[in-house]
Amino acid sequence: MNEMKMKMKNETQSNCMLCNMKQLVFITANRMLTLPLLLLVFSIPCFPPCVSTASIGHFHVNQRIRKSDQAVLLPTNNNMNPSEVETLFKIMESMSSDHAWRISFPNPCDSASSWPGIECKPGLNDKLLHVSRLDFGSPPNPSCKSTATFPSLVFTLPYLTSLFFFHCFTQTKTNISFPLLPHISSNSSSALQQLSLISNPALVGPIPPQISSLHSLRILTLSQNRLSGKFPVQLFLLNSLVYLDLSYNVLTGPIPPQVGSLRNLVGLDLSYNSLNGSIPETIGHLGLLQKFDLSSNFLVGNIPDSIQNLNSLVFMALSSNKLGGKFPQGLEKLQSLQYFIMDDNPMFIPLPEVFGKLMKLEELRVANSGYSGIIPPSFSHLTNLSTLSLQNNRLTGEIPVGFGSLCHIYHLNLSRNMLAGMVPFNSTFLKRLGRNLDLSENPGLCLSPSEAYGVKIGVSLCGSNRTASTIQPFHKSEAAPSVLCKSFFLLCSILGTILLPHFSIFHLVVSVIFPFFTSFD
Q1: How far apart, in whole angstroms, are the C-alpha atoms of residue 307 and residue 327?
Q2: CA-to-CA distance for 125 and 340, rounded, in angstroms?
Q3: By CB count within 10 A, which of 44, 83, 111, 418 is most buried?
């Protein structure tokens, strides 16, 4: 029996090491060799994250968060509080049928028991061991049975700091609920710092107002569920939150102005819901915000001028709403901005020159929004630009000559406009972009015969009725960065959740991790 336990333990450790090594290779291959990211590798779940998010990504990455590989020094006395043990067994029996938990693991926190999905730590004021983390979902963590419903008893575990449910509630409809026992005080869950419920299609109903009792919560990820209703005002009493992800649900109503009270937020993702109304001016109070995603809702009005106060902002996505009118004043103050994604909004204004002043921009996507006028020559100054999507607008004039000098550009889509003149790209540039270059459906554009040898881009040769393209640009490529970007930030949602015990690392990582995964096409 002891040999079998040791074998299982060694296999688990080997799997964890293999997962971390795969992530290290992945991150290294994508040039993220900063100290915070190297540290991050050894606490990522296998989002897959092994982000998912980055999987962030919805970047679709099935990312899993699992417990830290760092060894926990446990006292030789493996005793636990009997009531805590009984609560744990009740939770496990209601959630998973993987084992006969009471028989197979009579001492849950025993370091030799190899109980999957659990982490224990010694108490500060006693010699007992306490459950500090629970993970449910894909292996090696306990799977969830088809009849599983949300176990409100988890909120009675006094030392629990991290709780994660991935693809658990899939068949039996259930709600997020809190215990109604009269002896359970509002402070009973104050130790919980990270709560993640991801990809649970049977998790329905509103976000309960009792969520405000989780005073220490720093990361709240309720993504890819079927949660509905309006925001509970109590949610904005969680002043310790640094990451809030409610994406991919069916939430309705306006974004409450109280969102501005979450002054410690670094990431805010409310994308893929049914939110309406305008973006509140109070969003400008979130001075630490680095990721801001409101894509795919029904928001109207203008982007508020207060957005200029978000000088730490790295990623902003507002695609697929009903935003229109003028751009906010002071947009050029967002000098940390690397990703601006605002496709599919009825703007119907000239393409703003201010984008040419955002020198760190790597991705600019403003397709299908009714922009008119010329492409500002100042866009040629965006030397870090890798993706520029301006398709399906009403742009006129010539392509700026300086675009041919954008050495980092790998995806350029200017199709379905009214551009004219000679394409200012040499054959080297054209071959480098290949099918990631789309200039089609601009009848006034033509390509110099001297640059057309062996190049197929879908425009006519100058001075000829012949077309220079028998191989049309790959139209689907224009959507790839957007899909990857959504997947990973929904999945960075996931990434962030495991770093609360190392908050300083999370704060360093978040400014770097959001941008990079959107360029992995």
Answers
A1: 10
A2: 49
A3: 44
Q: Is the Cβ–Cβ distance between 149 and 94 less than 8 Å?
A: yes
Q: What is the DSSP string of 66-87?
A: ----SPP---S---B-HHHHHH
Residues in Cβ contact with 4 at an 8 Å cutoff, skipping those fewer than 6 apart: none
Residue matched to tokens 């030799």: 112
Return the pLDDT at 465: 61
Torsion angle, alpha carbons of 135, 136, 137, 140, to 10: 60
Q: Are 259 and 244 in contact (CB under 8 A)?
A: no
What does each C-alpha distance from 261 to 206, 215, 239, 281, 306 come to in angstroms?
21, 14, 7, 12, 15
59-62 contacts at long range (C-beta below 8 A, 24 or more positions apart) = 59/483, 59/484, 59/485, 59/486, 59/487, 59/488, 59/489, 59/490, 59/491, 59/517, 59/518, 59/520, 60/487, 61/487, 61/488, 61/491, 62/138, 62/199
Blockwise average pLDDT, block size 10, the chain, 521 residues: 43 39 36 34 33 32 34 48 90 86 84 82 86 90 93 94 96 92 50 96 96 95 97 93 98 96 97 97 97 98 96 98 92 97 96 95 98 96 97 97 95 96 93 92 91 74 62 40 43 46 43 41 39
H-helix or E-strand containing 276? strand 274-277
Tokens of 249: 């649900």
* Residue 375: count of CB within 10 angstroms of its CB: 24
| C-alpha distances in Å from residue 310, one per residue of 65, 113, 289, 305, 441 | 30, 48, 6, 11, 38
Structure confidence at residue 458 (pLDDT): 74
Q: How far apart are CA 347 and CA 365, in angstroms?
A: 13
Distance CA 407, CA 426 (A): 13
**474 vs 434: CA distance, rounded Å:** 9
The CA distance from 27 to 30, in Å, is: 5
Using alpha carbons, list the distances in angstroms from residue 272 to 295, 330, 497.
Answer: 6, 28, 20
Which pTM was predicted? 0.76
Which one, of 12, 109, 58, lies nearest residue 514 by Cα? 58
H-run or E-run covering 233: none
Tokens 């700091």 correspond to 161
Residue 183 bridge partners (DSSP) = none
Q: Are strands 363-365 and 291-293 parallel, antiparallel or unpaired?
A: unpaired
Say whether the peptide bond before residue 140 is cis (omega within 30 degrees of 0).
Answer: yes
Q: How far apart are the first and last CA of the chain?
A: 48
Q: Are 371 and 346 in contact (CB under 8 A)?
A: no
Burial of 465 (0-12, 13-18, 19+ CB in 10 A): exposed
What is the C-alpha to C-alpha distance for residues 233 and 396, in angstroms, rounded to an integer? 47
* 306 DSSP assignment: G
Two tokens, residue 166: 């991935």
- Nearest 5°: the CA angle 360, 366, 367 is 140
Report percent pLDDT > 70 for the chain.
71
